[in-house]
Design a protein that fits this description.
This protein is of the alpha/beta class. Helices cover 56% and strands 10% of the residues. The protein has 5 helices and 5 strands, in the order βββααβααβα. The chain has helices spanning 49-56, 60-84, 108-117, 121-127, 138-198; strands at residues 4-6, 30-33, 39-43, 101-104, 130-133. A 5-stranded mixed beta sheet has the order 1-2-3-4-5, with helices on both faces. A hairpin with a 5-residue loop joins strand 2 and strand 3. Helix 1 (49-56) packs antiparallel against helix 2 (60-84). The radius of gyration is 30 Å and the shape is elongated.
Length: 199
């Protein structure tokens, strides 16, 4: 409830429940709060049944079938996460939303096996706006996200400073031009005064 929430129902700003296109409430496994405005969704509903069958297979034929089932299970979950679009509904506004949801495979060897059996799996997931992570990657991925957000914030602040500095410069230029106009007007007034006085 402070740094993260588990199985929390996602709600709009007005308190109404966010629902998927099928009308089901969105309830990710974990919503991690990196700060007051930025959240990361981690979902880990990956079935490891096929992976266990792959490990326990007695024959190469059984192992191949179980390996295909393991990949199919992971890809099925990827598709479910793509369809739920958690990343489009978590966060106060679009600037505070992560473009990706993290799919956590809770067993390191199951993750490595899936990556070895299907070399396109990680990139296909990435294209679906899902990043697959394992226990070894959780902290490093979250630290990387936090660091990228911090740099993004610094960049936006620098751009904001540059923009405001540009506006300030424009004001100074306008002020100097106005002072030149005043100087010209004073000189014209002086000349008119001198001319009138001479007459």
């Amino acid at each position: 409830g402070v740094h993260y929430d588990t199985q929390a129902v996602i709600r709009h700003a007005d308190g109404t429940t966010v629902k998927s296109e099928e009308g089901r409430r969105l309830r990710p496994d974990v919503i991690l709060h990196l700060d007051k405005t930025r959240d990361v969704v981690i979902d880990s509903k990956v079935s490891l049944t096929a992976y266990v069958s792959y490990i326990n297979a007695d024959t190469e034929e059984e192992r191949n079938a179980a390996g295909k089932a393991h990949i199919a299970s992971v890809r099925k979950h990827l598709k479910e996460l793509e369809d739920k679009k958690y990343q489009d509904n978590i966060g106060i506004d679009k600037d505070s939303r992560l473009d990706y949801v993290l799919m956590f495979i809770p067993n390191e060897h199951a993750y490595m096996t899936a990556m070895a059996l299907d070399s396109k799996l990680w990139m296909d997931a990435y294209d679906m706006r899902v990043v697959i992570i394992s226990p070894a990657h959780v902290l490093s991925t979250l630290r990387l996200i936090a660091q990228l957000w911090s740099r993004d914030k610094q960049t936006k602040n620098a751009l904001d400073i540059a923009e405001q500095g540009g506006r300030l410069y424009d004001k100074f230029v306008g002020f100097v031009n106005d002072m030149k106009d005043i100087d010209d007007a004073i000189n014209r007034t002086r000349k008119a005064y001198d001319s009138a006085f001479n007459k």
